[in-house]
Amino acid sequence: MDVTSLWQTIAEHPEFFAMLTIPPVTAFVTWIHVLMALKMLFYPIKFRGIRIANFPFFGLPGLGWQGIVPRKAGKISGVIVDQTLSKLGSLDEFFQAMEPDQMAIFITEAVDKNLESLIDEIMLDHSPALWGNLPYALKRRVYTQAHQELPSIMQSLVTDLTYHVEDLVDMRKMIVNKMESDRRLMVNMFLKVGQKEINFIWHISALIGLIFGIIQMFIFLVVPQHWTVPFFAAIWGFLTNWIAIWMVFNPVEPHFIRYVKFFALQSRFPFIKPQLPHIARYRFQGGFMKRQEEVSEVFAEIVVKDLVTLENIMNEMMYGDHAIETRELMKSHLYKVLESPVINTTLRLGLGRREFGQLKNTIIDKSIVATMVPLRDPELNESRASKIFGLFRDRIRALSPDEFQNLLRPAFREDEMTLIVLGGLTGFLAGWLHLVLVFSPAMQ
């Protein structure tokens, strides 16, 4: 049958106009339901709906929805650390690259500015009578001694913390805790890293839907049964989501295909520029996989500014699972200032052995708080981030394609089947609505 005869057969079909609506409707519906599926992947950040105890579906706390990525932030971030970040280097290496000697100087200068008020705060909290009645000359000697001791104490303390960073900080737990406490950060990370792929899935779905719609139109021509409209709409919805996600990550490894090139694409009108025919190579690889060099810049920036930061590392040291060990290590350095003859004699005689021992614990508590203030300084964190940005970027670029895909793949893999099935369900509903609104009048 030639094209003219085929067109005549279609044109003479009693439901000709209804059939012609199948391709554009399928394209539009596919475009909409893929957009919906992508939005449901990331939003809402918090659960929206009615909470029901022991709700058995999708791991949700009730009847409603929470984005797959924010809902499973802890699990997904753990996968990213295990399969990607852990391959980029050790926390000790990153901390060393932050130049701890410079950090010690910055912290010393910041603490030294408020050292006297810090000493006053510690002593007035612990023993206001003693400190209030102590002659200013003796206080001045305590201040002076503390100022003299601080630089060497901070230098040795930071050096010791650097040496023990792997023992005091669990990088996996640090990042997972950060992601779980700030689920929007996880969503923003995936959107920044994979925005082009998300847009690609959304837009290519309309083209795939149009192709499937044309196929369905011919199916209806051969099998003129109305049940085929919602049935095949469900199949196309299912397949579109699967194909679109597959195209982002597959093939994992690049495959180069030779072809004859007759024109080049350009950004301005007429967009297509003729060329002399020549042999060119097409890189057949998943869309995300092709962008490894570009993504490396984006992901490295996210890691050094939001995840492996000086503030996060020190927070985990001071308040995390190994806080007790950190306190013991700090004691060995900070107590040195109390061992100087001036301070030891002044305080021990005034307080007695027992209260002098309790004072040591107060000093540790206050010192941790005082030390964390400069460590949260944006300027310090930004300067340390710049020290390790290049390290992360270059190592992400050096990942194998299989390792690299794990920067984005876990977000889709976690509930990929949910998204695909959702495409089938929305396709069926849209096909049924299409049947009722367009085909039903023709049936009457």
TrEMBL record:
Keywords: Membrane, Transmembrane, Transmembrane helix. The chain crosses the membrane at residues 16-38, 200-223, 229-249, 419-439. It comes from the Bacteria. This is DUF445 domain-containing protein. It comes from Psychrobacter arcticus (strain DSM 17307 / VKM B-2377 / 273-4).
